[in-house]
Amino acid sequence: MGLNPMKPLKSLRHKFEYFAFLTVAAAMRMLPLEFASHWSGRIWRLLAPFLHRHRRALDNLALAFPEKTPAELEEIARDMWENLGRTFAEFFHIDRIFNSGRIEFESRELVESLRGHGRGVACGLHLGNWEILTQAGMLMDWRPAGVYQKIANPFVDRYVSAMRAPYYPGGLMEKSPRAAVTLLRYAREGGTVALLADHRESRGIASPFFGRSAPSNPFPALVARSVDAPLYVFRAKRLNGVRFSIRITQVPVPRTEDRDADVAVATRNLQSILELMVRDAPDQWMWIHRRWG
Length: 293
Description:
The protein is α/β, with parallel strands linked by helices. The protein has helices at 6-30, 33-47, 53-64, 70-91, 94-98, 108-114, 133-139, 154-164, 177-188, 219-226, 259-280; strands at residues 103-105, 120-124, 144-148, 171-174, 192-196, 200-209, 212-216, 231-238, 244-251. It has one domain. The chain is built from 11 helices and 9 strands.
């Protein structure tokens, strides 16, 4: 069987991409945190609207906010790009954010009541800087375990995974059926499962989201219902510059004799809370993904 002539070219492209990525990473690390975040945000705000995904963001915003004018939607979309640019730069300073007192909790009483009781499911959403959400859990003495979506470039994937791994002391696994089984076992043993829950799940449970049916991931509710654990939403809202406010909301999970019905209700409860958080800061949520169709 002959060699695939495309494999060496693909490997060469990956290496070139990785070199470019390392160059950007080194530059970001050299710059002061606030400076890197600000200017990365400004550059993304200026250039990203020329990308094809800007049109998708505007279409999604129009579905979510039919009462807003095109100019208002455009401003929200540009604010979104600026936040994404900031989040990109801040990723390379994630340890500095964790160790510099830039994370505050909206309810200290709730945090203290949960400190050390890290059993359950903690969901996040792509709002503000979602990369710091597991840090918030660690500040509460939790040991989250989670999954990640593999990046196509294997070199970049290893770099990013290594950066994230210290903030998942319970383990960080590539998204797969095996990872789901491992996370369920970890929750059953008393650990915290950390997941992002605001993306489209093609085979998920239909849930209202901004007035439209959106296929949503039932796994967070399934884990919480199966192991009789609490289900929470963590939201990291950007304040001024590189400072963030963490809100923690518990999601109602019914526990009747019909587990499937309970999971469906809890999934819809979860999406309802996510919608409220997005409405509170629509300029900080990632509108560029397909959420409904």
